[in-house]
Amino acid sequence: MFKFLFDRDTWQELYDSISKNKMRSILTMVGVWWGILLLIGLLGSARGMENSFNRLFGDFATNSVFIWTQSTSKPFKGFQEGRRVRLTLTDVEKIEENIEGIEFVVPRNQNQSLVVRNLLSGNFSIAGDYPLLDKVQKKKLIKGRFINQNDIDENKKTVVISEDIYKQLFEKDVEPIGKYVRINNINFTVIGMFDSGNINMGPSSDIHIPFTTFQQIYNQGEKIGWMVITGKPEYDIKQIELDTKLLLKNMHRIHPEDERAFGSFNLGKAFGRMTGFLTGMQFVTWFVGIATLIAGVFAIGNILLITVKERTKEIGVRRALGATPFEIKRQIVVEAVFLTIVAGLFGIISGGWILIAMDKYLGQGDDAVFVNASVSIGVVFIALIILVILGTLIGLIPAFKATSVKPIEALREE
Fold first, then answer.
1. Model pTM greater than 0.90?
2. Considering only CA atoms, which of 187, 65, 167, 164 is closest in space to residue 115?
3. Would you list the DSSP string of 78-144?
4. Is 212 in the same domain as 226?
5. Are 181 and 161 in contact (CB under 8 A)?
6. What is the reported pLDDT for 240?
7. Is 313 buried (19+), middle (13-18) or exposed (0-12) by CB count in 10 A?
8. What pLDDT, in 10s, does the model give residues 127-173?
9. Which of 215, 284, 300, 387 could share a disulfide with 220, CB 3.0–4.6 Å?
10. Is residue 304 located within the same domain as residue 393?
């Protein structure tokens, strides 16, 4: 059935047809080339943005919400507006006991302090944390370990620092693990160092010490600065946020309709919006790319209609010599598919080079907008299949036009 594809005469005729109008053939192919280039470029860009977003949030529990206190905006039960309450460890326990769908509740504290090592020093943000933080906000440790339960139970003077802090307080190539830094005039042993490129939701904290130790040295008692709440995957984090705020309002005697008393940032909701944006961007990319492809393929069909008109007499001669309508149609469809595929392959190659350049110039470093901008082999294969189908369908139009003319009338054509 496909023997004609290996027939030299088939390709010779195809070459003669294209070479007669080289410029017209090239300009016709530009539409398909641009469509596939646009499709590959936009899909690769969308994937690069998605990879960048996933790298940013990859080690963070995205089904999370951050809650802190602010000033009340309504008087309630004898309390005037403008009152500021403080969150406590009791609040954490009540949330864990009463709110459905909770996976983790991580209390956190923070303060600014002078940190000294030998002759080097600086004012840095010190965070008091539990080991649980490493499950919610995974630290990419370069050396050592993170805070563990033993540090909490024994109020140990241990500290985990970021790579940036290491560069500011330690001489080059000095091993930090086991060395001491002074925080609030107290010696702390460095037990770990993590990558500064980690995402840090909430106030910036490049130095972590045990939560119980923080309570002692800063005289915090049961008070906490804010909390990170993570919901189980099957639960709606927005509902967990609403339930938690309502519980806290009841516990601290705050008006149920007071929207200012507690501040919050719902990472799950923000993550969902971003995921929706990326999905929408991919849909628009496919729509625009395929629409451009269709426009380009229609241009090929229009040119082939003109070609058929110019070759009317030739077609009449072939019909008179015994060529069947199927053979005439087949030759024109092969020409349409050939032009479409060649233009598409050039578009795929051009799109690949664009993605390589994008990755080289925009995909490097911690602030890269596009990380590994690329498209899968499956997408390229689907694009080629679409091109073949469109090329075949559009080729049928001039093919039927060519066989609709009777041989005797074609021979009379001047």
1. no
2. 187
3. TBPTT-B--EEHHHHHHHHHHSTTEEEEEEEEEEEEEEEETTEEEEEEEEEE-TTHHHHB---EEEE
4. yes
5. yes
6. 93
7. middle
8. 999 999 988 888 888 999 999 999 999 999 999 999 999 999 998 88
9. 215
10. yes
Residue 355: count of CB within 10 angstroms of its CB: 23
Using N-to-C axis directions, what is the helix angle for 325-362 and 312-320, rounded to 10°? 130
For residues 127 and 150, state if they share a domain: yes
**Which residues, 6 or more positions from 64, have their beta carbon under 8 angstroms from its beta carbon?**
136, 201, 228, 229, 230, 231, 237, 267, 268
Q: Is 127 exposed, middle or buried (0-12, 13-18, 19+ CB in 10 A)?
A: buried
List the domain range (segments joined by +) for residue 88: 71-101+232-260
The separation between the first and the last C-alpha atoms of the chain, rounded to the nearest angstrom, is: 35
Asked whether residue 371 is domain-assigned, the answer is yes
Pair 407, 357 in one domain: yes
Predicted confidence (pLDDT) per residue in 303-312, tens digit: 767 666 666 6
- Same-domain pairing of 309 and 285: yes
Are 45 and 115 in the same domain? no
Whether 66 maps to a domain, the answer reads no
- Residue 163 · residue 196 · CB < 8 Å: yes
Residue 295: CA count within 13 A, CB half-sphere: 13
CA–CA gap between residue 369 and residue 392 (Å, rounded): 39
C-alpha to C-alpha distance for 264 and 65, rounded to whole angstroms: 7
Number of domains in the chain: 3
- Residue 238 amino acid letter: K
Q: Do residue 378 and residue 343 come from a single domain?
A: yes
Query: Do 220 and 139 contact (CB within 8 A), yes or no?
Result: no
Q: Which residues pair with 105 in a beta bridge?
A: 229
CB 331 within 8 A of CB 20: no
Domain assignment present for residue 10? The answer is yes
CB 358 within 8 A of CB 373: yes
Q: In Å, how far are 111, 124, 168, 369 from 204, measured between CA atoms?
A: 11, 9, 16, 22
Beta strands 180-183; 158-162: pairing state: unpaired
Tokens of 394: 């559009």
Alpha-carbon gap, residue 95 to 105, rounded angstroms = 8
Looking at the fold, whether 39 and 150 belong to one and the same domain comes out as no
